[in-house]
């Protein structure tokens, strides 16, 4: 069978597979599930899932903050009428379980056999405004939760149906915004916060940014390819191959039913810039052989033979760099590592099937400037190589100084994260969340499960005293601004039994009174706030609250101190507790970030070590290869420390990915060196020859990689921004180390000695060698 028939058959098969991939890729959907960022397989996650079945989820609420008009307080009759109108609308909306609003708050009072709910506010009676405001500011649980301390804003706490997905959540948010307009409340004085808000914003922006990043990358890469090869096929063929690989990668995701989330949204861009490497190495070498006078068939044969080995090794190391992310317990990172690693291997497959087939069918290209004495780049790279040798001592000195400074600065990097820390501080959504931190109790949920010891119930006097003691600690030392617990219920019922007097808002002093209150609690058990705090049989309770988003570092200190307090000051025979909740699980991710990063880097380094040992049977050569790739990683860690960039979920992947990608060019370099040493006994000449052969592809691919990642600088997500910036810097520093430090180290290790190659390589470097 002729070569052209094989090429036609190859294109037909690949076209059919591409159509199948396109079908599955069309099934993909965008999603941002907050729960996916919990540490999978963690015992605390399993415990929290059982906890939510008993008491409900702690992040199904939606906060709607409303500011009074300038110069007014929230007690202005017109403002309260607007709030009440919006409250009534919210209560009628589908998927709304309950609404806590200042206009519907009541002070329950029990008199004789009667039960009354007395409103806290009387907007129609201006004379009672002073008394109403005084009562509200004296009643525990209202200020900071529903009313701001400065009386300039109120909050509606809307409890939504459990685990609302984006379409239903967006409908609820849209209905509330329409309600604001109908009530005459300006949008600029309204603030939303909660999981539904984050879910809506993240998914919408993911869709938009995916289009923007890909468009910018295509334009950038097209320009760089044209500037490099100056031929239409040097631009079109790499784009066809890489875009096909992206479609195949998305098709695999779709076939496995995986959605596009905050992490996997990076897959197309990541594959676009990473997958371009093999095509550029192939076309660069193909053009080189043509430039040295080889015929089309010979040039393609030599290119595939020599580039295939290095490209295969580099694809393996790059994919492993992504596969190591599967060690993460965070599902989005796990999926991103798995499917991007698979897509890298698919890109390699297409580079050595689709691209050669298209080159076979393409007529022998007429080079724009026929060359009789080698490459355009040979002179530039030759002068660069000579300059590196002449400045050997300076390069070693600068590398040492940069290494020392980077290690010192890297110690300033801390693991810290907060809710919505992937949004910039000036983002309107993050400002809305900060509004609740400043004006109300905050947006960070707090959860503590309460289990009476022995045969006690949650209403046992000793149990209630322990709960009240915990509440006092949380309010005075921990920083909890709003809390509700079974003790809250008992105090509230006692107050209602004593005519609603604030002085009676306390726990009963004797068992007989407590028994009477417990019996009366049956009258309130249908109220949602009661069902959410105590199990019907009184066997367990919940202490829930909200606080300022203090960040994971501060939260870890607070939780450590809280656990110590509970362990040393609490009578565990009376009451047992366990800290849980969504915030606790998100914070726990930070405990695994360093371990996962170290595991990923260790696997990467191990694989590179094995590859170099297999090629050169030399530990010295292994060190030589690792140094130019680890140095940029340390430099970027130093940049993070200098700039005050924290390590968090989104930035923890940077080092593993950057090392896996950066080592790609090194693998290409040493594989070409190995081939060159097969027929060139002089190490210096072999290194120089390799420098000239690989230098162009190394520079071009690095420019494309850096440029591609720099498109992420336009992201509105801080995590994505730093992924682009820091990986781009790593690759930039990496190519500098590749072209300066690597050849010097190789020459230094093999000065006067010939390396051992395994296995022997046939003499085939190409025409003109």
UniProtKB/TrEMBL annotation:
<feature type="transmembrane region" description="Helical">
    <location>
        <begin position="336"/>
        <end position="362"/>
    </location>
</feature>
<protein>
    <submittedName>
        <fullName>MMPL family transporter</fullName>
    </submittedName>
</protein>
<feature type="transmembrane region" description="Helical">
    <location>
        <begin position="266"/>
        <end position="287"/>
    </location>
</feature>
<feature type="domain" description="SSD">
    <location>
        <begin position="239"/>
        <end position="361"/>
    </location>
</feature>
<dbReference type="Pfam" id="PF03176">
    <property type="entry name" value="MMPL"/>
</dbReference>
<feature type="transmembrane region" description="Helical">
    <location>
        <begin position="649"/>
        <end position="670"/>
    </location>
</feature>
<keyword id="KW-1003">Cell membrane</keyword>
<dbReference type="InterPro" id="IPR004869">
    <property type="entry name" value="MMPL_dom"/>
</dbReference>
<feature type="transmembrane region" description="Helical">
    <location>
        <begin position="236"/>
        <end position="260"/>
    </location>
</feature>
<feature type="transmembrane region" description="Helical">
    <location>
        <begin position="308"/>
        <end position="330"/>
    </location>
</feature>
<dbReference type="GO" id="GO:0005886">
    <property type="term" value="C:plasma membrane"/>
</dbReference>
<feature type="transmembrane region" description="Helical">
    <location>
        <begin position="210"/>
        <end position="229"/>
    </location>
</feature>
<feature type="transmembrane region" description="Helical">
    <location>
        <begin position="721"/>
        <end position="747"/>
    </location>
</feature>
<feature type="transmembrane region" description="Helical">
    <location>
        <begin position="691"/>
        <end position="715"/>
    </location>
</feature>
<dbReference type="InterPro" id="IPR050545">
    <property type="entry name" value="Mycobact_MmpL"/>
</dbReference>
<feature type="transmembrane region" description="Helical">
    <location>
        <begin position="394"/>
        <end position="415"/>
    </location>
</feature>
<keyword id="KW-0812">Transmembrane</keyword>
<feature type="transmembrane region" description="Helical">
    <location>
        <begin position="623"/>
        <end position="643"/>
    </location>
</feature>
<keyword id="KW-1133">Transmembrane helix</keyword>
<feature type="transmembrane region" description="Helical">
    <location>
        <begin position="597"/>
        <end position="616"/>
    </location>
</feature>
<keyword id="KW-0472">Membrane</keyword>
<dbReference type="InterPro" id="IPR000731">
    <property type="entry name" value="SSD"/>
</dbReference>
